[in-house]
Amino acid sequence: MLTDPEFLRRLETLFLLTRKVLGGSLHADRRSTKKGSGINFADYAEYHLGDDYRHVDWNIYGRLGDLVVKLYELEEDVTVHLLVDCSPSMNPKSLFARQVAAALGYIALASHDCVSIYSVSEKLETLMRPTRGRSNVFKMLRTLEQAPLQGHSTDLLSCARALQQQVKRPGVCVLISDFLVPGGYEEAIKLLQWSRHDLFCIQTLTPSEIVCDWKGDVELECVESGERRKVTISSTEAAAYEKRFAEWNTDLKQFCARRGVGFIQAFSDLPFDQVVEVILRKGGLVA
Predict the structure, then answer these.
(1) pLDDT tens digits along 50-86
(2) Distance (Å, rounded) from C-alpha 152 to C-alpha 160?
(3) How many CB atoms lie within 10 A of CB 43?
(4) Quick check: 27 and 284 in contact, CB under 8 A?
(5) Pick the CATH number of 5-27+77-281 from 3.40.50.410, 3.30.70.100, 3.40.50.300, 3.40.50.460
(6) Is the pTM of this model over 0.90?
(7) Rounded distance, CA 281 to CA 18, Å?
């Protein structure tokens, strides 16, 4: 359960680690090019009547006699959009995916960022609208805990289009999926980047998916479409499956690297906090 005291304790430990290694921020530096009254100095501007006199640089006035004010970079609020694959193929690794999402959501809320949650399958479902603050941690955890597996396939491109229509302001998108989708993942990732989101992909797999132990005559059923097919599996077919599966995963990793997209592959037999710790020590949700 995502609301158990022990699980919450592990989440708080991860947040403390975030503060230690990243200064309390999961995401990339999103300082704006706009100038204002932030904390990071950007430039000087001539003083005009009505400007805040507290920003006058009196040292320059004393040396040169010029009244100038300091300008600062504005640090924009960030919304972390958690896109969690809730299609039937995620069934054996669904809890693990939700635990990872819960950890990232907890850290974001504790860091005063907004968090939204979406279910990804045949279509995009909004599970939690942008929410801020530690007081909403249990709301976020219950949302993830109660999200059902649904649909008969995974259409990443359709979901990316729906997100583009709903979310106009760039944020940080974390896509948690096995990425084993018939229509491919390339166009969806491109679209999310085109929308100027900082994108991080977490591929969740089970160890049993990378090997084929079946031999002989078997009837296979697709967990999403329900389609059945009788096949004969020899050592040759088993080796071909394992080779193609490895190639698919390698292609995904290389595609993300070429696009500057953050990526990590995580197996569901690992503790979720170990996976999140790796993300933190690599620099957070950045490529």
Answers:
(1) 677 777 888 887 888 888 877 665 455 689 999 999 9
(2) 18
(3) 11
(4) yes
(5) 3.40.50.410
(6) no
(7) 9
